[in-house]
Give the backbone structure.
Amino acid sequence: MTEKKEYRCTVGVTLDVIGGKWKAVILWHLSHKTLRFSQLQRRLTGVTQKMLTQQLRELERDGMVHRQVYAEVPPRVEYSLTEEGMTLQPILNLMCQWGQGYVASREELQVLAEGA
């Protein structure tokens, strides 16, 4: 959040930081362990290298992700959650649970509709 905004609802702040197609998923994977760029890219089916780089930079800028570069040849770069990023874990867990319930209820409706 490089620019100062006025928010009427602080949900907007949360969405500015973790909103978008990939950020919450990136944070979810990093909440389990430190990952290299290529490991993240393999876990995010369909993300382009450019998009993943952009999303990681924004998360780093907002203080959610730490980028560690190791002086090796070739250079090794690892991403992990910062302390601030770790505060999102309860939200991410709830989002995961909600998604599981949503998928299950949609599948139930599908089965009922097919049986009618």
In short: The mean pLDDT is 91. The beta strands are 35-36, 65-70, 76-81. The helical segments are 11-18, 23-30, 37-43, 49-61, 83-86, 89-115.
